[in-house]
Amino acid sequence: MLGGKLVKETIIPYQWDALNDRIPDADPSRTITNFEIAAGRKEGKHYGMVFQDSDLYKWMETVAFSLQWDRDHEWEKIFDEVVSLIEDAQEEDGYLNTYFSVNHPDKKWTNLKDDHELYCAGHLMEAAVAYYDATGKTRIIDLVSHLVDHIASVLGKQKGQKAGYPGHPEIELALMKLYRITEDQKYIDLCQFFIEERGKRNPSHYFDIELEKRGGGVKKSSNRNYDYYQAHLPVREQKTAEGHSVRATYLYSGMVDLANELKDKELLDVCRVLWENTVNKRMYVTGGIGSSSHEERFTVDYDLPNDRAYTETCAAIALIMWAHRMVQIEADHKYTDVLERALYNGGALSGISLDGKGGYFYVNPLEVWPHTANCRHDMRTVKPTRQKWFGCACCPPNIARLLASLGQYIYSANDSEVYVHLFIGGEASFKIDKQSIRLTQNSNYPPWEGRTKLTIDLERPATFTVSPRLPGWCRNVQILINGEIKDVPVDKGYAKIKREWQNNDTIELLFDMPVEIVRSHPEVRVNAGKVALQRGPILYCLEEVDNGANLQDLRLKTNQSFVVEYENGLLNGVTVIKGKAAATDKDAIEDKLYTTFTYPEVEKEIKAIPYYAWSNRGENEMTVWIREK
Fold first, then answer.
1. What is the DSSP annotation of 87-143?
2. d(CA 55, CA 143)
3. Angstrom distance (rounded) from CA 62 to CA 11
4. Listing from the earlier edge strand, what are the strands of the sheet with 435-443?
5. What are the Cα distances from residue 195, in Å, to 200, 234, 259, 599?
6. Is 610 within 8 Å of 539 (Cβ atoms)?
C-alpha cells in the first residue's frame, strides 16, 4: 500500500517532472511553461486545457501536506519559488488564470458554465490553506485574498455584478477552508452566494444569460442540459445525484461545510438525501461513482455497467471528501464505511501504480477485456494499462494530494471525545482536559489482518471518550482494554469507550475478516447471477495472468471454503484469495459460433487479488464480478 514516504520521495518529484515536461514519452503538460508565459518570463501561447493551472495547484497542495509531517526545506524552497511565479502571473486587479491572461484576455468571466476560472481559483485556495497550516507563511494567503476580492467585485447581486456561479463546483469548499483559518466573512459570504444562487431562474437561468451575452442566442431552458452542472434546480430542491460526478460531489462537500457552519438543518437534510441516493442507487461496489463516459456523469438508479464503468479517479476522491464531511457532522459509520471503500478500492488507490510513478488510471472499470477495449470506439475511455500522464491530468495530482493528506481522515476530536475513523498506523495528538494527549496506532489493518492497537500517552489521568469505528462489513468485533475483553456501548457504529485513562492504557480491536460473498441489488441487472469477493474493506478481482483468459466463463462455487494467503513477493505484498471455479472444458469446444449442445465443465483453481492492485503486471483481462455456480 502507498505511504507518506512514497509520496515525498517518488510521487511529488515524478509529478514535478511531469509539470515541467521532463517525463519521456508522456503526454506534455506545459503547465509551468504556461505560468512563465503569463508572468512575462517566456513568450508563447497557452497550451492544454482551460483548467491546466489546477494541475499545478493540486501538486502544490500535495507538497504542502507533505511539509505538515516532514518539513523538507528543499521542497519548501521550490514551493516558494512557484508562489513567486504565480505572483508574477497574477494581474494587477487580482485576476489569475493563465489560459485567459495569455490566450483570451477579452473573455474573462464570460463563460462561467464551461471555463473553469473559479474551479482553478478554488484549487489554489486549497493549496494556500495547506501551505499556511504547514509553514505559517501568509504570502500565498495574501495572493488568494487578492484573487477573492477580484472575484467578489465581479460576481454577486449588486448593481453591475454578474449573478453567476461556477459550472464546475470546487471553489465552495475551498472558500470554507479559507474562512476557517482567517474568520474573514468575505469567504463564507461568497461561498453562500455561489451555493444559494445555483440553479435559480431570475427569471432566466444564468447560463442562458451569459450565453446570450456571448452572442449565442437565447437557449431554451432544459433541465437535462443543466443537470450536468447540478444547476437544474436550486440546491435545496435537489433530491438525486445528477450530472458530472466530480462536480456533484465537490458541490455537496461545499454544501456540507456551509450548512455545518451556519447550522442550516434544511441544507444538511438535502445533503443526507443526496448521500442516500448516491451510495444506495448510483455507486459501484468499489466505491466508484459516475457510470457513464458521456459527460463523466451519473445516469439513473442502478445503471452500473462494469466494462464501460467510467468511475473517474477524481470522483472517488471527491466522494471521500464528501464522506469525511458527513461524518464530522454525524458520527455514523455508514459514512466512514463508504469513505474507506472508495479509498481502498474505487479509484483512489486503483488509480495509481504500486510504484507511485509512471502509471495512472483516469477511468477505473470493473471489467476489462483488452481485445475489445483496444478496438471498440464506445470503449475508448477504458485503458487496459496505466498511462504515464494525461493531456487532461486532473487525476494524478488529485491522488497525490489525497495520499499526502490522509492523516486528516483518520481521526477527529472535540473537547471530550476522540473518534478513530480509519485504522492506519501512526501517531496523533489532541488537546483534551487542558493537556496534550497522544494516540499511537499500531495496525496491519487494512487489509491483511483484522487487528489494531491504540496506545494512549498522557501526563496525568483524564476522563474522556475514545470512539473507534466498528466497520459495517465486520460481523464480529472484540474490544480489549488493557488486554481484557470488554462490552462497550455502540452508537451508529462507533464504540463509546469512556473512562478515566491512565498513561499507556491500550485499546485493541480484533475484527473477524472472513472472505465474504457480495451480491448486488436485483435492479443492478448487469450483475444478475454474479458475485464479488470481499475481505475486510478490500474488494477483489480476477486477472488473466493468474487465472487464464476468458474470465467470464468461470462459475464460482460460493459454498466453498476459501483459502486466504499472504504472498510477500506478489504486488508489493498482498493477501490473495484462492478457491475453485467451474469452467468450460476447452478441449470439448467446437469451432462453431453457436451450438445446441452443452459443453462439459472442468474444475479450475482460481486466485483473486485486491482490485486496487490490478494492471501492475502488464495488459490482461480483469473482472470484479464473477458468475455464480
1. HHHS-TTS---HHHHHT-GGGTTS-TTTS-HHHHHHHHHHHHHHHHHHH---HHHHH
2. 18
3. 9
4. 426-432, 435-443, 451-457, 505-511, 477-481, 484-485
5. 10, 8, 10, 60
6. yes
The amino acid at residue 482 is: N
Q: How many residues does the chain have?
A: 629
Q: Is the preceding peptide bond at 514 cis, omega within 30 degrees of 0?
A: no
Catalytic residue positions? 296, 394
Share above pLDDT 90 across residues of the chain, in percent, rounded to a whole number = 89
Strand partners, 486: none
Enter the C-alpha cell of residue 54: 489546477
Selection from 296, 295, 286, 292 nearest residue 309 by Cα:
292
Letter string b/e over residues 520-552, b meaning 16 or more CB atoms within 10 A of that residue's CB:
beeebebbeebbbbbbbbbbbbbbbbbbbeebb
pLDDT of residue 217: 63
57: enclosing H helix or E strand: helix 53-69
| C-alpha cell belonging to residue 399 | 491522488
448 pLDDT tier (thresholds 50, 70, 90) = confident
Spatial contact of 101 and 154, defined as CB atoms under 8 Å apart:
no
Helices and strands counted in the chain (H then E): 20, 22
pLDDT at 216: 74
CB neighbours of residue 22 within 10 Å? 12
φ/ψ of 175, rounded to 5, equals -60, -35
265 phi and psi, to 5 degrees? -60, -40
Q: What is the pLDDT of residues 386-440, one digit of tens each?
A: 888 888 889 989 999 999 999 999 999 999 999 999 999 999 999 998 899 999 9
**How far apart are the C-alpha atoms of 627 and 621, rounded to whole Å?**
15
